[in-house]
Design brief:
heterodimer; A: about 130 residues; mainly beta; Immunoglobulin-like; four-stranded antiparallel sheet; three-stranded antiparallel sheet; B: about 160 residues; elongated
Chain lengths: ~130, ~160
């Protein structure tokens, strides 16, 4: 029903002409349907409101998160995290009203609310006598 | 606790470039894991194992853990016998049960990470902050563990 699932992740280097930061980290995401639309949650630790860039173009939603956490200024003993910005693209279902998409970020988790257009919502038709 | 962080496989990735990128990332990570003695392995499939970094300079040891979407009250930090443990639980919010789920990559539930600290620390002065989903624990080194210059008097 929704091709929000048929996401197609573009090679990260495609749009980035410069060599500055060629690779991105793909954030883990959850997508679920609600009564009014869809909710997308993506984990981006180290990103706050100022580092977020969300664009919709040709029914493709792209989220970019730039880390604002300052690296610890001390030699590394052991490291598992990667100092990369986040990027991920999703194809949007045509039923989504792109003008009404809203976003918030809290404790490194981005939550996008993607409402369905009024015209595709199930409507109750009342019978007049 | 797993030494290697489990990554959810990208089921719908078709681009060969992406595959190469993630393979390269995996390889980089293998090379980064040069100190296997630092973590204790509690079994490979223990679920959520948030990424942990450790840094040290001459005065402090810093431990950074990526814990997006938590409340600071849900994180417990303890220090015992030179081992720092960080335990917590990320609760699954009920709202996701409303409709069909299309993607479910995030982990929910308990995590437990512990690391042996490289030096003795002053446990009374340990300080932790949680910001933008990242927990940073600063552990000042104990006086006796700091490098000291010893004057030798030659008579």
């Amino acid at each position: 029903m929704s091709n929000l699932t048929n996401t197609e992740e573009k090679p990260a280097t495609q749009q980035q002409g410069t060599v500055r930061k060629t690779s991105y980290f793909t954030p883990l995401a959850n997508i679920f349907e609600t009564k009014d639309g869809y909710v997308l949650e993506a984990e981006m630790p180290g990103v706050n409101k100022d580092g977020l860039e969300i664009t919709v173009e040709n029914n493709e939603l792209t989220i970019v998160g730039r880390r604002s956490d300052v690296a610890v200024n001390a030699p590394v003993v052991y490291r598992e995290s990667r100092d990369l910005d986040y990027r991920r693209a999703f194809d949007l279902d045509p039923s989504i009203d792109t003008a009404k998409i809203s976003a918030k970020i809290d404790s490194g988790v981005l939550t996008l609310t993607l409402p369905k257009a009024e015209s595709v919502k199930p409507r109750k038709i009342s019978i007049t006598d | 606790m797993s030494i290697i962080r489990y990554q959810t496989p990208e089921l719908s990735t078709w681009s060969p470039f992406d595959r190469l990128t993630s393979l390269r990332d995996e390889m980089n990570r293998l090379f980064d894991l040069s100190l296997p003695g630092l973590t204790r392995d509690d079994g490979l499939f223990s679920g959520w194992s948030p990424a942990l970094d450790m840094h040290q300079d001459k005065d402090n040891v810093f431990v950074k853990v990526e814990l997006p979407g938590m409340k600071k009250e849900e994180i417990e930090i303890s220090l015992h016998d030179g081992m720092l443990s960080i335990v917590g639980e990320r609760k699954h919010e009920e709202k996701s049960g409303e409709g069909e789920s299309f993607r479910s990559e995030r982990y929910f539930g308990r995590f437990h990470r512990s690391v042996t600290l490289p030096t003795a620390v002053d446990s009374m002065k340990v300080n932790a902050t949680y910001k933008d989903g990242i927990l940073t624990v600063t552990l000042p080194k104990a006086e006796e563990a700091k490098p000291k210059q010893i004057q030798v008097n030659v008579s």
